[in-house]
Write a structure and sequence with these properties.
alpha/beta, TIM Barrel, metal-binding, Metal_Hydrolase
Length: 338
């Protein structure tokens, strides 16, 4: 029996993806298909590829908006969901918890309701789960710089639709941290928790560690990025003690310019300090790296052993919002994997 290459070994490693934006999984070829359906002057492939080029974090937000605008109908949402799950299954991802930018939909897409969108992604999810085996939960994401009132609508929709779609498991706030401090959402998060929704927060991606403290203070069960925690020893101690899972996105941080070089990324430091870290891809086509690429890059650049990569994969299972029985089953898969 031939020895597996390291990439093949990492591909077979059972893992979960916990920080992935549905709209950010659209590859340029699919964007062209969406444009042909919905634009008066459809994009060429070259035009589409240009939209994925940007210079900084704000440029990335603009690019993300430009891609998201091409999703106009329920059929579009069903398509991108099915394709996303297919690609995840090819990387050894057993389960994913995916952000849907409901805040963007509500502000910019009056032609489609949240209810119609949700029915569409559920059709795509069920068909893809049947075809490929990878399961998916949804997290409704509000845009923090759109303000508290718009976020309240997003979170209310999540609570209402959760009754019909148990695959909706949580809420989050993304967007520009500088213009939407987490502390402003404290009351909304308490209300969401009371409805049974899990709480996530993007924090410490492009601003100082005070944003991560705010995320903890409003009840975040998982924190996305947490890049700036490295600058605050007291915060690192709290994160290690509380074992609050961190959704790390190394390639994303480099591509947006939030981290200046891979040598300075704190992923290894966090691991050695005993923080509960997971690896994630964020918006794969926009950053040129899917989750398998991320595992491969992190192992190579930071010299993680295979046993340590198994630990990171196990972290992704433990940090998920899966029910206990499924977690136990997946953790057993990780443990058996050699």
């Amino acid at each position: 029996m031939a020895l597996l290459s390291q990439r093949e070994w990492l591909s077979g490693l059972p893992k979960c993806e916990l920080h992935l934006h549905l709209e950010g999984t659209i590859v340029p070829e699919t964007l062209v298909r969406l444009s042909q359906r919905n634009d008066a002057a459809p994009l060429t492939l070259r035009d589409a590829e240009k939209l994925y080029v940007y210079e900084d974090f704000i440029g990335f937000l603009i690019a993300f908006k430009a891609v998201s605008e091409r999703i106009q109908t329920p059929a579009d949402y069903e398509l991108i969901t099915y394709e996303m799950i297919h690609r995840l299954s090819q990387q050894g991802v057993r389960h994913a918890e995916v952000y849907i930018s409901v805040g963007i939909l509500l502000r910019f897409k009056q032609q489609i309701t949240v209810e119609d969108m949700m029915a569409a992604v559920e059709r795509g999810r069920k068909l893809a789960e049947q075809d490929f085996g990878t399961t998916v939960f949804w997290i409704f994401d509000a845009v923090r710089h759109f303000g508290v009132d718009e976020a309240a609508v997003v979170f209310t929709k999540a609570a209402e639709l959760k009754q019909q779609y148990p695959s909706i498991v949580g809420i989050g706030i993304g967007g520009d941290e500088a213009r939407g401090p987490a502390v402003e959402f404290k009351e909304l998060y308490a209300e969401a928790k009371a409805t049974g929704l899990h709480l996530t927060v993007h924090a410490g991606e492009s601003v100082p560690a005070t944003s991560i403290w705010s995320a903890i203070n409003i009840g975040a069960e998982r924190i996305g990025h947490a890049l700036s925690a490295v600058d605050d020893p007291e915060l690192l101690a709290v994160l290690a003690e509380k074992q609050i899972p961190l959704e790390l996105n190394v390639t994303s941080n480099l591509r947006t310019g939030c981290c200046k070089s891979i040598d300075t990324h704190p992923v290894r430091h966090y691991f050695e300090r005993g923080l509960m870290i997971t690896l994630n891809s964020d918006d794969p086509p926009m950053f040129g790296a899917n989750l398998l690429d991320e595992y491969e890059t992190v192992q190579r650049e930071f010299e993680f052993t295979n046993e340590q990569m198994r630990e990171l994969a196990a972290n992704s299972v433990e940090a998920s919002f899966l029910p206990p029985a499924r977690k136990i089953s997946l953790l057993a898969e990780v443990e058996r994997y050699r």
